[in-house]
Structure formats: C-alpha cells, structure tokens
Request: fold
Amino acid sequence: MKAVRDIYITNSLTRNKEKFEPLVPGFVGLYVCGPTVYGPPHLGHARPYITFDVVCRFFSHLGYRVRYVRNITDVGHLENDADEGEDKIAKKARIEKLEPMEVVELYTRNFHDAMDKLNVQPVSIEPRASGHIIEQINMIGQIIEQGYAYESNGSVYFDVRKYSKHHDYGKLSGRVIDELIAGAGNERRELEGQEEKRNPEDFALWKKAAPEHIMRWPSPWSEGFPGWHIECSAMSTKYLGDTFDIHGGGMDLLFPHHESEIAQSKGACGKAPVRYWMHNNMITINGQKMGKSLGNFINLEELFNGSHKLLEQAYAPMTIRFFILQAHYRSTLDFSNEGLKAAEKGLAKLLSAGDLLLKLKAGDKSTSNISEIREACYFAMSDDFNTAVTIANLFEASRVIYSVHGGTESITEEDLQILKSLYQDFVYGILGLKKETSDQSNGMADLMDFLLSLRAEAKAKKDFQTSDRIRNELSAMGFVIKDEKDGSTSWTKN
Reply:
C-alpha cells in the first residue's frame, strides 16, 4: 500500500461512523445498485455513481484491490416499485413498439456514454438481472427451504412476519415491523393482487406472468419473472460472497429495496450480507425534490446541451462532477443555475492553477506548509470520503500556486513536488477531474486560461503595458476580467 491509513465510514446500518476493516486484508468488495434501463440516464444517476467512483478510486490509490460490482436492472422492476403493475422495461417496449431487449440495449448504451462523459471509470463486473435468472431461482429455493417464503398461485412471496420472529426486519431503514403491518393492513384490499399474499407487507420473490407479460422464464413455481429485490441479493452473493464489505446506493433505496436485500440474504444464507452500508443523499432542484410530475426532471444529456427549460446554459460534464463532489455525499444536494455556474468558475480556477503549476520555479525557502495541505486531503478522504473538505484544501493549494506564480510567495523544490503530486493524486486521480476538450465552450475556456497566464507572466515581469493590453483587448470583446485578492484571475463573458 502507498500509505497505511485508517478509513472511517458512516454505516447506515448502525448509524455510526466506524473504522473500515476489510474481510480480506488489502481487498475491498463493493456492490452498488445500478440503473433500471428503461429511459435516458438522469441527474439522479450522476450522484451515486460519481460518489462510489471516488470511493473506489481512493481505495485503489491506497493500494487496495477493489472488486466493484454494479448491476444493470433489465427485468423485474415494476411500476411504482410495487409487486403489481407492468414491468418498466416491458411498458417502454410496448409504447415504443420494440422488443424489451432493444430498450435495454439502447438505454444501457446511453448510460455508459453518460458515465464516460462524467469520467466514471468502468466497474469490475456489471451483471444483468436477466442473465442471472438461475441464481435468483436458486436463492428463492433456499429461502423457501428455510421457511421464510411461500408459493401462492405460481408466485412466491417473502414472509416478513415469520422472518421477523428470528431477525430484525426494519433495522436498516428504522421501520418498526408493527407499524409496517398496520400500515399495509389498511391498504390490503385496495391493492390489486394482494389476495395472493398471506400478509400485505410480504414482498414478491417471483411473480407468475400474466398471459400478456412479455418477459418470462420457466421456474419450479410458474413461468414468470423475478422480483426486483432478489436480483441484487443473488448477484452480489455470486460475485462477492455471502458476506462482503460495502453496499452502496441512494438513500431512496433504503426501504424497501435494501431492507429486503438483507432479509433475503439472511433468509437464504443465515448471515448478514454486508458489513458497511453507504447511502448518498437525495438531489433537489431549486429546493424541490426531483420528479417527472413536477417538471424538474433533468436528463444528463439535457444538462450537457442546456436544452431543459430550467437551465440557463449548458453545463459540461466535469462541472456536474465537480458540483456533486463539492458536497459531502451524505448531505442533500440542491441543483440550481447559480450553484452550477459557481462550480464552473471554481473548477476552471482549480484546473488553471494546475496548468500554472507546471511553470513554477522552486526557491530556497517555503512560505507555506504544503505537506500540511496534503495531509489534510488524506485526512478528509479517510474521514467518510469527505470530498467537500478535500476540495477546500485543494483550493488552498491552488492559492499557493497563484501566489508563487505572482511572486508573492515562494516554495522549495520539495514542496513543488508535493504540489504536483497533490494535483496528480487528488485532483486528476481520486476526484477524477479533468479539462473538457470536446466542445467549443471548453475550447474558449482553454484559450482564456492561456491568455490570462500570459497576462500573469507579463505582470510578474512588470511588463504592465502588455498585461494592460491583454486585459483591454479582452474587455473590448465582452470579457470581464477580475483580479482576485489571492493572486488568481477570474473571467466572465457578458
């Protein structure tokens, strides 16, 4: 390992921050719930996959070998996340007059393309639910053998009340089983198909397919399809074992999805499947929860091209990534044009400092303690992957770079190398930030960075005639140039 450091994770199961101790020294098993591919990837997909991309990058940086499994849900996720209704992918296929797997392929490619733009690295294994029907059937059989599931009219349901006599259903989400039973009972006869269940709070492990249902497989109970929750239990077990290190996902999956995963795995194997549960918080837009019914549901491509009515401009993928990382993953994140524009400027400033870093010259002494900044970055990332504090420390490093470049501070050769490693390891490596080079707006940003670096060099040489000329020419073209107190320069376009 590059460094022996203790990592602390806020465990959703215990609600405590705990020291991470891997099941196998030097190895991390990580499972994150992937997308249901029935539509374009949206803003809600960006946060968990950027979050756990950084988690994986940090573990890898420290020398761990990470097996990162993120599934593709291509069957079994019914409307409203319930046990009744139409499969989301089958419904989309019916509307679009396509085969379900055409829908899956189209939106899986869309998802991968968006993740590439956001610089989310490919995962170790990306299993599909439809490719693991046998594993799901086998796990359902194990749960039935242990007495925690029953067959009814060709469907199989998990018996929540019987399970709760021996295990703590609701521990992850904080739900009380008596309240779940009471709440479900009030709706028992209002929900279509509930008569198949012994108890209304039971959930489906396997559903018998109606005659019109397109996606179906043979099983010991009926020709049908798996429930939504069982797929993650089966696939995580197959690739990471009965118990593994970390399970991640959005907070909206706490209940019923992740709660049911725990019950299924305990019901089949008799042991808890996960050591550390990690959940990122929700995304809001202008203070409102994101939703199609509210008209504030933004696809990632709409963010990238600025076509959504709520957007004042297009935002580059790296701006989205940087904005997400400026907040701790467990805090609510509110997307707004003001916040995104501020992130755009902040990212440009941070990356421009990285360009200037390559031109810095070392002196005989340092006026800043660069090693403390580096240690603060490691401490922040080790403390529950706090990217917000890490970025604040990196901005302090960029301030030093601008000051040294401007001649108001100096650093030794040793500190210069630390600064370079900070950018290489943290900015470009762990945080996964990079310059955008694919469109005209990013080309303009590169050009502006170059012109302002020439102006900074002229000022450092006291060639004020040249520095003033660059500023005046840019102003005449509609650019507002502002010299900051820390020695950096920012710009905006009128």
Q: What stands out?
A: The longest strand covers residues 244-250. The two ends are 49 Å apart (CA to CA). Residues 337-357 form the longest helix (21 residues). The chain has two domains: 8-280, 338-493.
